[in-house]
Amino acid sequence: MATRPQSPVEEALQEQRDLIALPLDSKLETNLSVLRRLYADGSDIIIHSFKLSNGAELAIAYVDGMTGIQEIDLQLLQPLKQQVDDETDKNWESILMKVTLIPSNVVHTIQESIDSIGEGSTLLLLEGEASAAVFNLPFWNSRSIMEPDAESVIRGPREGFVETLRMNTAMLRRRLQSPAFKLKPFKFGRYTKTTCVLAYIEGIADPGLVEEMEQRLSRIDVGAVIDSSLIEEMIEDEPLSPFPQLQTTERPDVVSSALMEGRIAVLVNGSPIALIAPATLFILMQSPEDYYQRAYVSTAIRWIRMLLSLIAVFMPSIYVAVLSYHQEMIPTTLLLTISQSREQIPFPALVEALLMEITFEALREAGIRLPKQVGSAVSIVGALVIGQAAISAGIVSSPMIMVVAITGVASFLIPSYPLGIALRIIRFPIMFCAGFLGLYGVVLAVLLILIHMLSLRSFGVPYLSPVAPLQTSQLGDTIIRAPRWAQDERPHFTGGPWNRFRSKPSKPRRQ
Questions:
Q1: Are residues 97 and 188 in the same domain?
Q2: Which residues form the domain of 392?
Q3: For 432-473, what is each residue's pLDDT tens digit?
């Protein structure tokens, strides 16, 4: 059977794979030829050959912009050129002894060489040696550490993660100085070679939880990892659920607290967002500031947050259901007022609610995408102008504007942005149920949502724990925030009889 001829792209990829699979040769020119072919048209890859005074032939390779050029000259090139004396300095050991910097690694293959160059290290090759020395001299232009805009607090630390992995791990190590704090490295992406770390505290985190995370991470097979969101989609239990099953944060204090609770975290190079597992609904409803205020203040804020979250999800649906099917539930005076305001409205309550909710969501997204200088002004002024114009035009009624406005304000109190999006999404199906079945439809939607949430797990932990299943010893940090001296037991994120890690299929997830 005749084989299909390879396309030019396939031939180029096959040639690249063949070159990468080669070991380093003892001839310097052969190694440089392979590197130049691999990095053809790569203007940022610097490959520089030079000779020492005794005739020894060497070469260095690095990425311009990721490597400290001044450090290369100061700690590598100058010591080599100044301290070489005679013919005995042509072997590998004597050459490396002249360098003030100790090599971080010695590689023997082309694959290891390009991996080192891609990480920002400097590769030193010598004629007659089938290996290369790797010197860690990276130079990163990184964003300065500042407070995350999405997780600001009145009282508490003012620093957040940045896009550089080592700066993020350093912020965690400064808080968790014990050798029990572990950072296990992984690499993802056939092209990006993105580094990420699995962070946990040995002796606190359940070994089964750590092993399950390692297995899920090892099954990821993708071409590129640009942000931690891709990792999140690959390792969560139920990818089709609207509810987030991992906690995301930019705050190192939140990650440190989660690790002390026995949870684990994943940090990805190039992303300021850390992933924390497992996550439950009550964890996602907590704000970092809950732990920096007094217990009774945090408890009161949590109650307000829970109440307004329910309002954000159900208020438009209940208004549509009562107005469409259950007018007898409305006080007579209020019913007359609502009826008067709706005399000229041509749409039923469901269509009216959908129009205003969609408009409000559009204004919210416009405020986020526009530049900060004009985004907030456009969203606020746009809501006022459009709302007043809609009332004047007889498209919507004044009570509906109030309902949508209260719903929108209530949705801003949800501290987790992914959870807030999920609640905003499920609000629309609930409104449809209310528009067609009244309060019976709302109750049916609530039952379906509860059934889904009761069956949902995050790394084996029930999504509604510790309420369902009930763990009375763990209720001190859910709806209330008990004083610190009363919280003498870590949360049971693993180990319960109901908790079994649900392993994913053995087939790796590809992209």
A1: no
A2: 291-486
A3: 999 999 999 999 999 999 999 999 999 989 999 888 888 877
